[in-house]
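Annotated sample (chain length 922).
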Amino acid sequence: MALTVGTRIGAYEVSGAIGAGGMGEVYRARDTKLDRDVAIKVLPEALASDPERIARFEREAKTLASLNHPNIAHIHGLEESGGVRALVMELVEGPTLADRIAQGPIPIDESLPIARQIAEALEAAHEQGIIHRDLKPANVKVRPDGTVKVLDFGLAKALEAPAASSPSLTQSPTITTPAMMTGVGVILGTAAYMSPEQAKGRPADKRSDIWAFGCVLYEMLTGKRAFDGEDISDTLAAILRGEPDWAALPSSVPQSLRDLIKQCLEKDRRRRVAEIAVAQYVMNERPAAFNPAHATVAPSTPRSRQRILGASAAGLVAALILVTATAWIVTRWSVPTVPPVTRFTIVPPAGQPLSLVGADRDFAIAPDGTFVVYRALSSQPQLMVRFMNELEARPLAGTENGRWPFISPDGRWVGFFAFDFQVKKVSITGGPPIPLCRYVGAPRGASWGPDDSIVFATSDRATGLLSVRAGGGDPIVLTKPAPATGEDHQFPFVLPSGRAVLFTILVGLPENAQIAVLDLTTGQHTTVIRGGSHAEYVAPSTGQPGYLVYSASGSLRTVRFDPVRLQVLSDPVATVDQVMSFGTGAAEFATSRTGALVFVPSTAGGVVTGTRSLVWVNRQGREEPIKAEPRAYMTARLSPDGTRVALDVNDRDNDVWIWDLARQTLDRLTTSSGTDMSPVWTPDSRSIIWAGTTNEAVPNLYRQAADGTGKPDRLTTSPSAQFPSSISQDARLVLWESAASVTNYDISTLDLRAGATQPHRTEPLIHTAANESNGELSPDEHWIAYQSNESGQFEIYVSPFPKVDESRAHISTAGGTRPLWARNGRELFYLDAKGLLTAVPIPVQSSDTTFKAGVPTKLLDTRYFAGSSSRGLDLRGYDVSLDGQRFLMIKDNTAGDRPSAPPASMELVLNWVEELKQRVGK
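Output written by the structure step:
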């Protein structure tokens, strides 16, 4: 209802009308008690006549009133008089931002201060869980002194009905016609600034506000709307399918700001900038810093806690976080006495997701916090680096399938464990990797000391900690585990002085682990913590007591530690809960010299001892669990008689195990100190052939009776890694992949007919410049199926065996890996480009050289764990039953291998050492 001048609503006297909109009519009024002018918003009649909505509105209004920020118009209270309900708000003088834009584009030096203040307002509200839902230039006031006030904060949500069941209404543009005011009441969001999810009738969240912010920023700079049309339908169509006119942005707009607007206007909100803090960091850059070649960030308003949920394909979030980390620590314009502890979440973009091996730490932060290196998974795992002055991560060439990255003290080099069983280093600026030394077993950590030596460890219990010069050479054994107790020495961390090394002594389960410190001057080590593993040292200042941080029971615990006396000075304090950790004792966390912490949170809140389980899946997709204990299974192979399963388990011991399907027992087959993997059954189901690293740096082929009797028989001796994939029916020929490097896999054969007095003969079978692997013989042994990336992506091919050069049939239609024949030879299975099981009917062949196949058909809609690609080759991790009606699958319990699962994220805590001072003591 319209109010006239002089009308009283409680203590407020109306002095004139200001305007009207979908949220209600607005009037200027005088607060007669406090002698001040206020704004009175009279609520729509549709709301005022609904008791349930009024009650809900009052609850929401109380929350909105809690917002106390200089860039948010404050809510003073609710008033009711004569049947009129009104919201009393701060009166903000000055034109709206829409009025200012109507005069033309706003220069960048004027736009940025306005946009910064809008972002500050959004951040303050988002921190309290409040979303604006209707951000637009008309809801932004710019006072004469330049102060920005955002109006109507959260009113869209407050005015919404309790059961807004009509998404088409609750997310549509602000319109005040009676037809649009029925049902749920006011329709939320103005069309030109609505996010795609709102336009589709889906719930809004803070990313919807960020979309609107991008629209507003674009409009300020160009003077026109990012998305517009002749009517609402045209506008919504532009939002859902169109793109802004990017050429309309003035040439003075720096690239970093252009990228920000584009990331704010990502239609898929999973890829959109997820936190408004990102916008603050970009806009707070000094002018010169807009050039990525010399980016330096000015400080934004300090906050005790800010979370950036990264989510852009360009990797904007993580890069900006790193920029901020360095800037806040090193180059702040105004450094407070106590720097704030600031928290962020980094989610690598969809094309470069964080790849968790399940036994390693998969990332590292530079000692000065200027970049982070992480293991990403795209076509294959590779190390990526994000610099502080770059918006995108870039791959480190030659690090394909690299594991456990570590960084030199000067930040110039990244060390890693290469797939060809060499420790290597690569320059952070690019170039080929440089081999340093060979290693045996699986990586178990490395640390680069200040004297330019590298201390590392592997799962090989014959040696403990080893040291190699950063220039390369033969490694030196620093410790030898006690064989009588079965202990192992892992996860070294060189203290800043270079005098001593923290490391973990593992005996049995991780909860029995001990943290020890090795004095390099005496060669003696002493246990300092019991019941913990994987320790690092964080120091507030050089030479002074700092903090020893370690993993225990799925959390990080911290004690004060004297690096000179090598002594613990306090009781442990739990400082971070729910950190991803593994049965190897490793944990996904890293610290920087500047006192920052990076870690991967664990929603399970505990140690991840087994992330995968075994299941039968029939052709209709119904699962039948297998009762084997969940573990880090990498491959599963059904015995030819269908009674047992050979399993490659990637845990601390890296052994081959046998699951008996009838007895439901799991028994270890291999017990070497090295890595044993990729088991294949002989046709009589009596023996297993696998790849092992018992006494050498790279895996060669071994054979042993499946019941564990006898000693392993070494079949090959080669400097190249070898993995078995298939065995002929007469058990004479073994097909195996040779991996001379991470980019050169070939298929060869091993003839087992040679006697004990001469070596088994090996011959190349399919050797080309492309990568060929997973050779599988057909049941009649007339054909070989395999995968090759000759076309640029992996596809499935079939050639006659053994005359593979006579012909080749292309089987897959759009990518494929890991072929498998049905036991009767009438079908060929493989995983398509999305990792989904696909079946190809195979008719009876009429030719010995020309292979014919049917049309591939997707068999299962669920993606299961594919196999041990983390070790470099796409080894097949699934199998088929004897009757061809069920499939033995490895199910990833963490869902990280399924497309629908949320990507793994890294939490970054800046100035974490300040929190340790408060919680652990100085």
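Annotation: The radius of gyration is 32 Å.
Annotation: The longest helix spans residues 108-127.
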